[in-house]
Amino acid sequence: MKKAILFSLIIQIFLCQNSYAQKLNTDSLTANKLNIIIQFLNLSITDKIADIGTSSGYSLLPIANKYPEIIFTVEDIDSNILNRKKLLKTIKRFEYKTVLEQFNIVYGTETSTNLPSATFNKVLLFDVIHEFSDRNRMLQDVKRILTNNGSVFIEEILVHKPIKKDRICNYPFFTEDAFKALMMQNKFILIKEKITFDTINNRYIKIFEYNAANN
Question: What number is the average pLDDT over the span 124-142?
């Protein structure tokens, strides 16, 4: 689903900016987006990383492919979507060098990650918060699993003008103001932010780093 959404956004550039789009290459756009994310995350082999809402790994596997020495804890609520078979299928499809042993699979619920408390110094939530059925409780659970001074890295598709729901994922996207209000409500402190992809239309993708407030 996540790959389909990104592909749809790239197609929109082609349609809306036809003269310029002829010069663009889908692979180079994807590679550029990944490079921005890699630099933003600044991962190291000492990091303890949890990826929430991993699904089949479309967002995480390109990152893990760059860091074969890092073990990632991956979480989702649906074992039909996140499992060793689906991860392996994605690895083979995109010819990644990463191996299944890099991933510890954990299944959560709609209100809990079921991950151990105060364990991860980096928690990743890529294109998933807008799909949470109980956003406040999930964000509080994310706080619970963070170490002191740990960071939450969130990438979301954002819209300038609200839409009822997206035709691909069937959920509404946040405006940037609404997203930031949600994070502030849950007492997360914004550290930095960066656009990773812009359709030059109503939608764009942005990555954020947040720390949890102490109270």
Answer: 97
